């Protein structure tokens, strides 16, 4: 649960989740709108994932007071809905225009279908931007080539995950560290990140 406002709002949301929705455990992040990392939300998602793995034949429901409790921007909503869908976790929105239980496996689930389509559009657009950035970087250096060998599979996987979360390429580059070779311990260049992500989409 994400509660950016007053203590009364927090109490109301907690009461709805615990007493009405019957949640076994609630998580609370009291953060300002500029804070990017939401540790309690991440813990809640990890718990839902773990419960789903332990009880494959039982539904796991992730309940939030409203959509603003789940995400503060459309990009966050697209990313988090994809995370819940990949984990095969249902979403229960208690109030607001999208109130109801949304099952990612249910035919006609408009919530996950629409956000999944929006995520695909964003990924395609980012792919085009990455290709354009790669071409510009290569032309500026007067060279072309494949993915640098410093980009191993683990590093590429991390880069793709950060990209799918909506992180810009400069931020992705700062979050990555080259594991081996003469540049070990350093961050990859922007051109390397652009190139690796572009080839991964090919």
Helical amount:
40-55%
Task: State the end-to-end distance.
Answer: 38 Å
Outline the biggest β-sheet: 3 strands, mixed
Mean pLDDT: 77
The H-and-E topology, N to C, reads as HHEHHEEHHHH
User: With helices defined by DSSP (H or I, 4 residues minimum), what is the helix count?
Assistant: 8
Strand-residue proportion = 5-15%
Shape: elongated
The count of strands amounts to 3
Question: How would you describe this structure to a colleague?
Answer:
The protein has 202 residues and is mainly alpha-helical. Helices cover 54% and strands 5% of the residues. It has 8 helices and 3 strands; from the N terminus they run ααβααββαααα. The protein has a 3-stranded mixed beta sheet with strand order 1-2-3. Helix 4 packs across helix 5 and helix 5 packs across helix 8. It is elongated, with a radius of gyration of 20 Å. The N terminus is likely disordered.
Key attributes of the depicted protein:
202 residues; mainly alpha; 3-stranded mixed β-sheet; 8 helices; 3 strands; 54% helix; 5% strand; elongated; disordered N terminus
Secondary-structure blueprint:
Layout (H helix, E strand, L loop, with lengths): L6 H14 L18 H16 L6 E4 L2 H4 L3 H13 L3 E4 L6 E3 L7 H32 L11 H12 L4 H7 L14 H12 L1
Parallel strand pairs: 1-2
Antiparallel strand pairs: 2-3
């Amino acid at each position: 649960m994400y509660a950016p406002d007053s203590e009364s709002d927090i109490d109301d949301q907690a009461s709805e989740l615990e007493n009405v929705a019957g949640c076994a455990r609630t998580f609370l992040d009291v953060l300002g709108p500029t804070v990017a990392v939401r540790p309690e939300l991440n813990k809640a998602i990890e718990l839902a994932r773990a419960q789903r793995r332990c009880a494959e034949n039982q539904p796991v429901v992730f309940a939030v007071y409203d959509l603003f409790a789940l995400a503060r921007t459309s990009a966050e909503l697209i990313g988090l809905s994809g995370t819940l869908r990949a984990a095969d976790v249902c979403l229960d929105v208690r109030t607001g225009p999208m109130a109801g239980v949304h099952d990612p496996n249910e035919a006609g689930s408009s919530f996950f279908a629409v956000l999944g389509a929006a995520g695909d559009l964003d990924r395609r657009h980012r792919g085009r931007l990455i290709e354009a950035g790669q071409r510009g970087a290569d032309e500026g250096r007067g060279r072309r080539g494949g993915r640098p060998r410093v980009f191993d599979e683990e590093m590429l996987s991390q880069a793709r995950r950060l990209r799918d979360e909506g992180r810009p390429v400069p931020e992705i580059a700062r979050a990555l560290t080259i594991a081996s070779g003469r540049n070990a311990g350093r961050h990859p260049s922007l051109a390397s990140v652009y190139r690796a992500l572009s080839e991964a989409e090919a």
